[in-house]
What does this fold into?
Amino acid sequence: MRDPAIDICVIGAGGIVNDAHLPAYRIAGFNVKGIVDRDNRRARALAEKFAIPEVYDSLGAMVAGQDGNVIYDCALPASEIVEVLRQLPDEATVLIQKPLGESIEEARIIQETVHSKKMLAGVNFQLRFAPFVLEAKKMIRGGQLGTLTDIEVYVNVHTPWNLWSFLFEKPRMEINYHSVHYIDLIRSFLGNPSRVYARTFKHPDSLQLASVKSTIIMDYDDYIRAAIHTNHHHHFGYHHQGAYIKIEGTKGAIKMSMGVLIDYPNGIPDTFDYITIVPGAAPEWKSKPIEGSWFPHAFIGTMEQMILAKKGIIEQPENSIDDAVDTMRCVEAAYISSGQGGVSLSSIA
It folds into this structure.
């Protein structure tokens, strides 16, 4: 979807930009015009690697060099987003890195800043645009699964958290920085839940981290189970590691593996298996090859939404900031639920 009339300027030159943003934009043919980072050497290294023509010495210099046909890709920690937004022009188009703040209060401040400056803003909740997720949604729209009854996300892996040293200082970790993807994913299928139940957990070998495991239930009604189970401390080899999304309906089911999470950052190939019930025929699972994966291909979708909205082809990006605030509301509900705890057995006579 190359469109030379729309330029992308990247703010930040960290690992996620190197590993996902810029590879995705290169695959899609998006026009990355410039990059800036407080570490100019890091920005120059990425500019050379990805043939980015401009490296700016400051955010002010970047802004001064643009016309209105630019999208600012803010790949920054949540704590830095508001200050950067304040330095961007009113009515700018901005893609903001997830999560949308560390709490619902911070998410609201970012949202209010965007609205006061009349910006067109989206958030990089990209799992909903992964190729295997898009294929699942296509099948669901086509009626192949019937009425949805169950969505389960299961992650049992060993995540090398040392790759992101800043996480060791966060009072909220696993849900904010990982399970938030699955909360947003389930919302993209089912909308907002009526309630959220959750418990997030530490591990005795990783006491520096606020949490490394979570169980979350998103409550829709008596007929739909939506559950997230994550364990990032399965340090017993690869034999029983696993990461999948399973969707069931009245007429069929889909199971998609997320290979990128296995032996991270090396990963293994994804799989996409499905079954549809045919009256009179024996049930048979089938496999479908899916081109592309979560990293980096899903990052095409979040930026593509911004391009389409900026060009007026769609009214709002699917990943709009207002939609992202609802994801953060669910995150906040999960933390509140985890803090309040369950029903004490001692209260039951």
